[in-house]
């Protein structure tokens, strides 16, 4: 459980702050993503920034037994897969990302999900047993 709490203590606040950043800059995010998508090198760098922590989570915390720690494992696999996709297919991922953020409501939905998962993981990491 210590590994679960340690990873949740890092991942939870990061997801929550990311969601707040989207809410605070909702109008600007499509432009951010469109600009980043025009630079495949930047997409690849972002891929490594997701792939390496995802790989670390999967390596040290590949737990599929019941309870909330499964969420940590799932997040690790999502980060690993997303990082791989960005590294292997930067142009295509850039196109997909631009399409996602320009579709009404999708970016806001992602932010809400990030806030809920981030808040939950933060509560599990920092809350009392």
> SS-based structural class?
mainly alpha
How many individual helices? Answer: 6
Coarse morphology: globular
Reading the helices and strands in chain order gives HHHHHH
Are there runs of 5+ residues with pLDDT below 50, and where? none
Main β sheet profile: none
Radius of gyration: 15 Å
> What percentage of amino acids are in beta strands?
under 5%
First-residue to last-residue Cα separation: 11 Å
Helix content: over 70%
Quantity of strands, as a count:
0
Mean of all residue-level pLDDT scores: 94
> What's the structural domain tally?
1
Describe this structure in words.
With 129 residues, this protein is mainly α. It has one domain (2-126). The chain has helices spanning 2-24, 29-37, 40-60, 69-88, 90-102, 106-126. Helix 1 packs antiparallel against helix 6, helix 3 (40-60) runs antiparallel to helix 4 and helix 3 crosses helix 5 (90-102).
Topology (SSEs and partners):
Elements: H1 2-24, H2 29-37, H3 40-60, H4 69-88, H5 90-102, H6 106-126
Helix pairs in contact: 1-6, 2-5, 3-4, 3-5, 4-5
Properties at a glance:
single chain, 129 residues, mainly alpha, 83% helix
Put the structure in a nutshell.
This protein is an all-alpha fold and 129 residues long.
